[in-house]
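User: Could you check the structure of this?
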Amino acid sequence: MGLAVSCSGPVKQHGETLMPPARIDPASPEVTGLHKNERVVATVNGVAIPASRLTWALHNASGPLKGIGKLAMLRLLILEEVLFQKAVATHFYNPRDPVLDEEFKRVLAVQFIQKHFVKDYPPSAISIDDLQPLYNLPFIRAKYDHKDIYRVYDMQWLCCMHPNCNNEQCYKDGKDLMEQVYDRIREEKITKQEIPDIVLSMRKIAPRLSLQKYAFVYDWEKHFQRGIRIMDDHVVNAAIKLKVGQFSKPVRSSFGWHILYLWKHEPEEHLGLWAPYVRKDMQHFFYKRFQSNRFRQFLFKRLPWRQFEVLRQMEIPLLRRGESVHQDTSHLYQVKFFQGAIQMYGSQNSDLLEGM
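Assistant: Sure, the predicted structure tokens are below.
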């Protein structure tokens, strides 16, 4: 997919030049709301949280936030400020861009997605460590680590639903009719694609005729079948003697008569993720899945309000019980409380002391 825009400069669209907005300063008065000579109740990385912001938050609190108290509310404002600064620092949010052209956003978004999730993340970028849990799933591993696999079409004349039901008349009728089916297959040189049609047309004279498609695993070293599905031995012994593309003569089993067509044989192999073929095959097969996961992880990291909602829901019950709240163990954010300003502020509005 070709793109006509670069992140390093303005975007030209229909003769107009779209310029990205200037980066916001989280400490600027237009963001903090700090007025001249106003009291500061806390700072985050030197950015002031004015008393007026705490006033607004307390007066407009609703739901689980209503009545949590001044200090508890201030802690939430500090947490919100931390996340806001992270959002601005990563260029995710800028309150100065309310009139930014939507086309500019769209083009940049398309370019970013193309680069970050396609160009910089091809199938080959999926590591062995990422693939290993998927390879360990039995139904995935069986594709690369298995005994001989035989895949057949089975044209059937069934007389019994359980072995040796002694319905000899059915077996006798079936023998004659299945020989007629086999003769027609040879005369008309029926191909794999024509098998369903021949079954339907021959039902006029062989009403019990049906068709199944299945596979079985055979261990040539020990000469027996493996796996969950075990087929009749007469059928298996006939199928493993066929070459791919061959029909068998009518074969009698414990259930009826069969004409078998071997359409695929997968020889025994034992390949792990160390094999380039296996790794490349799985990388391409599961690429969309890993690409989607990469996109979801990116979104979660870039949506600070999601983090805020999670943290807020964790902290509110603790605040109500008077317990300690979340602390930034990484020490990336320096928070200062101005207890004097908080107390002076509170004394002016006695109703705000509720919940302390």
